């Protein structure tokens, strides 16, 4: 089997609504900066997100109820030391808990190797599962050797993804790491590219899954 996941950082509610229409009946994973939610929005200093609609708690609940993943992209999108980031992640988790039940996933902004150890301590203490401590050196995750704390991902634009699909081995998982769509946010992709990629995946009989669906598949395989 071969699987692909679409993930989107920074938490644009406009992006989430578009992706729901574009990927239906499949699901995506959205990582939300919980401090950017309305009406308690903190000051946004990231220039790519200043004018972006990051939605409300109720809107992200609706996204979750549609079957999509809603995870944490921390509370403030901060660059800081490990102790401050750990507090920031825990604060974010309290918001995510109001959106859906476990498992909980996190995507770390401004990732460094040093943070892996810190995030591991959170996983053992607070978070049930972790995701997107991403390594960009390889594209495909082998299903017989999945480490949810250190997953390989692909940030190539969709047209480039089409070029590597023919090299995708069996029993593998490709995670696509994007931010938003149609001129919004950091390095946006176009809606029509998502549609083209979705159709190509269906043609190649590659399953589209969100991260929690993949986690459940792996849990079932272990149980069996």
Describe the structure in your own words.
- This protein is an alpha/beta fold and 224 residues long.
- It has one domain (2-223): Alpha-Beta Barrel (TIM Barrel), CATH 3.20.20.370.
- It is built from 7 helices and 6 strands.
- Strands 1, 2, 3, 4, 5 and 6 form a 6-stranded mixed sheet that branches.
- Helix 1 runs parallel beside helix 6, helix 3 packs across helix 4 (113-125) and helix 5 (158-165) packs parallel to helix 6.
- The longest helix is centred in the middle third of the chain and has 15 residues, at 82-96.
- The chain is globular and about 45 Å long.
- The protein starts with a strand and ends with a helix.
- Residues 112-137 have low confidence and may be disordered.
Summary tags:
single chain; 224 residues; alpha/beta; TIM Barrel; 6-stranded mixed sheet; globular
Helical segment count? 7
Computed CA radius of gyration, to the nearest angstrom: 16 Å
Q: Indicate the structural class.
A: alpha/beta
Q: Mean of the pLDDT scores? A: 84
Distance between the termini: 16 Å
Assign the CATH superfamily.
Glycoside hydrolase/deacetylase
The number of domains is 1
Task: Give the uncertain stretches in residue-range form.
Answer: 112-137
Overall CATH architecture? Alpha-Beta Barrel
Summarize the structure in short.
The protein is of the alpha/beta class. It has helices spanning about 15-25, 55-65, 80-95, 115-125, 160-165, 190-205, 210-224; strands spanning about 1-10, 30, 70, 140, 170-180, 205-210.
